[in-house]
Amino acid sequence: MKDYHINIFYSEEDEGYIADIPDLKFCSAWGSTPEEAVREVMIAKAAWLETATAEGKSIPKPKYRPIIYQVG
């Protein structure tokens, strides 16, 4: 099974890195490094999936893929 895409970006406002999973609404996390943000969003993903399952909500299939631009 494909896994969910994770976006990682630096936030000046938050003074750290944000990692989010677009396919899982509101699933995001913060870290002082990109690696920490990914570790934290993996914890958030597990909690998101566990909560959705417990509440009988549907789990979306991984489908988000970013647009990749080729320069040059």
From TrEMBL:
Residues 4-63 form the HicB-like antitoxin of toxin-antitoxin system domain. InterPro entries: HicB-like, TTHA1013/TTHA0281-like. It holds the Pfam family HicB_lk_antitox. This is Type II toxin-antitoxin system HicB family antitoxin.
